[in-house]
Structures are given as C-alpha cells and as structure tokens.
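Quick one: structure for this chain?
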Amino acid sequence: MAASMREKQIVALKRMLNLNGPLSKSSSVEPVWKVLVYDRFGQDIISPLLSVRELRDLGITLHLVLHSDRDSIPDVPAVYFIMPTEENVQRICDDFRNQLYESYYLNFISAVSRQRLEELASATLQVGCTTQISKVFDQNLNFISVEDDMFVLRHQNKEPVSYYALNRAEAKDTEIEQSIDTIVDSVFAVCVTIGVVPVIRCPRGQAAEMVAQKLDKKIRENLRDTRNSLFAADSLQSGQISFQRPVLIILDRSIDLATMFHHTWTYQALAHDVVDMKLNRVTIEDPPPPDDPHPPPRNQPKRKKTYDMNRSDKFWSVQKGNPFPSVAEAVQEELESYRSSEDEVKRLKSAMGLEGADDDAVPMLTDATAKLTSAVSSLPELLEKKKLIDMHTNIAMALLNQIKDRKLDMYFEMEERMMSKTTLDKSVMEVINDPEAGSPDDKLRLFLIYYICSESPLPELEFNSYSSALSDAGCDLNALKYIRRWRTYTKAAAAPSQYGGGGTKTIGMFSKLVSHGSQFVMEGVKNLVVKKHKLPITRIVDHVMEMKSSPDTDDYRYFDPKLIRVNDGSFVPRNKSTVNEAIVFIVGGGNYIEYQNLIDYARNKTVPKKVTYGCTDLVNANQFLKQICVLGSEQ
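Got it. Here's what it folds into:
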C-alpha cells in the first residue's frame, strides 16, 4: 500500500534530522548526537509527527526555539528547521557571531530567497565560520500533517490565511496577494512531499481561482527545469509509478458556511468543538476526586490535564469518527476487558499462595505458574492499556459534561433536521428563549444554520423578531449582518438544496452502559445515530471524481501543469474516466466535520477512493463565529 502523506513527511523529517543523509535501518548504529533549533512554525510541523523519544532515537539531545536564550554548546552540530524570514536569518547570523555550535545544518521549511542566502553568506565571511556551514537545504515541508489524510497550513500565526483576512472589506490588494502566495507555497510543498503533479480543478472567482492559477504556474516552472525538478526526484525515490494522477480540488470556504457553525456528534469533531484540542493534543480540566477531603477553593484556577492523541492509539484510530454514545460504550467495554485481565492476575496470584490461598489451590500451582508468567510478561502492555483507557474515560467525561450542560444533543439533532429539510420537534425561537439551552454562541450558531438553510430569505418582520430574541439572549448580532450580506451576494447561498439527505435517528437507550453500571451517566442524553449523507463539499468532490454533470461543477476551471501548452482553465478534456484519488483543499478554514464526511464518502464507495483533506487553518465553530462577528462589525 502506498505511503500516506503523513508517513512521507515523517520520512523527510527523519532524513533531515539525520543530517540529510540516508536513514540507517540497523538499531546498533549509534546516531550523531546533535541539537535541534526550530522556530514556532517548525515546532508545529514536528510536534504532531515525532515524539521526544523518537527525536532522541535520531540523536536529538536538545530541541530549542530559535528566538530564545540559548547557551553555547561548541562541540555539538546544530540542525536548524526554520522559515526563511528576515528575522530568522538575522538570528542565525547572531548564532554564527556567538559561535554557539560546532557546525550548522540549515534547513529552510520553504524555499529561501537569494537575498536571504546572501545575508547568510555575508555573515559567515565576517565571522570566518564558512567551514562550519555544513549544508543548506530547502525542505519544502511548510504544512502540518494532523492525520494520514489531513493537513493544515498554519496553526500559530494563521491570521494572514484565515477566512477573516481573505474576506475583510478593508484588505489591500497587496495583503491578499501575500496571503495567496503563502497558501500557494504550502500547497506546492504538499504536492512535492507526496511526489505527484495533480490536475487542478476550482470554481471561478474568489481566492480559490487565484490559488489554482498561481499553483499551476509554480508547478509548471518547476517541471520546466528538468535538472532541478523537485517532482522528478521524488517520484524516482518513491519507486512508484502511477498511471492515474490525483485531482486537486481547490474550493472557497464561502461555498458552505453552515457546516462551520454545526454542532457535531462524533468523537474527534466533538473534542475539537467543545474542549481545547490543538494539533492532536487535548487539554481538559482535571476535576478533583469526589472523595477529596480538601477540595480546592472555588476561586482557584482549575488544574489542566493534557493528552496526546497518538497515531499508535488504536482506540482513537477506530473510534474518532464514531458517534459519541458508541464511543462511551466502547470505553466501558475496554474498561471491563482490562478489569477481567487484572482479576485474572489476582486470581493466579491467589492460586499460587501469594495472597492467602487455601490448600485446594496447590494442585493448580504448576499450571498457574505458567499462566502467571504469561500474565506478568503482558503486564507492560496491560499498564499501557490502562493508561489509554483512563485518558479516553477522562476526555469522554469532559465531553459528556459539556453535552449535558449545553444540551448539545438537542442542537445537533435540530441542525441535522434543518440541513436535511425535515420537520423540527421544537421551534428555533423556543430554543433561543430557553435560558437553560446552552450558551449564547450555541443559540447564534443554531439560528445561522436555520437562516442559511431556509429555502427563501426570512421576511423582514420575522428576521427582526429573531434578532431581538438573540440580542436578549446575549448574542453578538454582528454575525447576522455579515451572513445576511453573504447570502445576498454568494451564489452558493442561493441554493439551500445543496444541504440534504442527512438527519438522525434515535436508537435504544444505552443498554450496555446501564447493564455494566457505567460511570457515564447518560440520563437525559439522546442516543443519536447520524444518517449517512454528503455535505456540500463532499457532493462537489463526488461530482468531480465521478465526472458527473452538475450545474455546480460544470463550469469549474481545469489546469494541468504537465501540458506543454498553457491552458486558460476553460478547456476540460473529454476524458470521462473516473478519478480514484483526490486532494481537497479549502481556502479560508476547515473542520473535522467536513474531514470525517469526506473520509466516510471515500470508504463507502463500491470502488474505494482515496481522499486527502486540507485547509488553510483548522478552526472550531466558536473561533469561526468570532471571525464572522468581526467581519459584520466592519461593514
């Protein structure tokens, strides 16, 4: 099976940390001990992919932030992994002058300009450390892999590529151009890392078309320089020849705003929406034990606990896309399994006379010894399993508390009904006026979805009554200003029929949790199962991959960087064969709801498809809502 994008990025990082030499497959070979120096962006790229232990195995004894106070370690080589900014290059020049390290391996995350290289060369000549500069590389790794099939461009300093930056009325042409160039560089790096030249499709107008045009030009120029082409080298190294190229579908966030406000019900998306989840790291409040004789004072800040959601965690890999109730049941089953294994060890100890066993247990001794030896040998695995169970129990409890406090199951069910055009059990106004129904942001998100998915614009009188109710509930009405204008001017907003086919169904209550006496008290929470459906972006992807005729995609532009003659994007080849691999990239932010919907679509096809999802930045509903409110306030 072909390596995933994340696996290829990990290989590239390991090669870089091995001083850009081939990786040794022998564990007996001692690594070269060295220091890793990165900027904040380099840190964001590495942290979801390589653990501290893996860095140590690669010979990294220290990992330090570039713009921090660093002591001189004159007998150790240093590997730098940084963006080629003026500020970063000046700091490297300072390191040369201070002679911090024995030798320097400079790895720029994206291509370094000639001007920056000249600044570096000038500094090395002044200091006289030319021989200490061992290597200078463009790594072309300026994107963050958060899943095997998901990437984002920015985590820190993401404002220049956010939905707000690309859509604000006061944005200057030069600022938009700079943001587009940043996006193009990163998407180009994705293509280089996976080693393919995709066919590019995009809608006309807005930022997606600008990104597609510039990306086509950038790849074309790189392919023209056959001696230095980044794609030729990668395809040869991978040893894989593909007769079908993937399609890169670049879309604007404004195609679908409702999904960005949607309350969700699956494990990973729920964690991202309601607790603090960043780059696969979840931070939750650590509640004091219920029987604590000395509980902390109420005004004291609550302790936080952080968990890394590793790709080696099988429970996370299997359950992250499942509805929350089934995840709670799965956690309970894992806990029961662990307890039975623990009880078995205790029973064997007892049978061997280690814990006050009686004489009847003696004949079992020989058999018990073998079983106990086996049990003890599996003890590390059992302890690791207990650690993971505790982690998922704590996260699931934090999610459950949020669901119950904010009635998130009700919001999710109502929004699914709105998007699938089915009758609501209770009115939107009733929820807005209910002081117990969630936070002001929850109510605002519900109304925005209702407004976006309405078949026709709401009458002025009705809209004003909703605005008044939302204002009384403490909502920021600037969001309504922006969405109202967006619906007026956006082509996609005129077709609410693009939402549909979804909905939920309630199945039997939590029998497994009740029968096992679970600590997950699910009273009052609906056991909702999501019906399979396609979100607007998934529908577009389906039309493009299956070469279906559709008013939404028939006028999409087509770019093929491999064609010798430059195509203006209007010509689409008559080839009607379907595409099995797609990279879907959203300009202006994305979320886990969309990602999961695309992955489910790809898995459920008769002929399995491979879909990789990417976005400029990963934002949850409340973060996106803040951007919309600011846009509305600037009108």
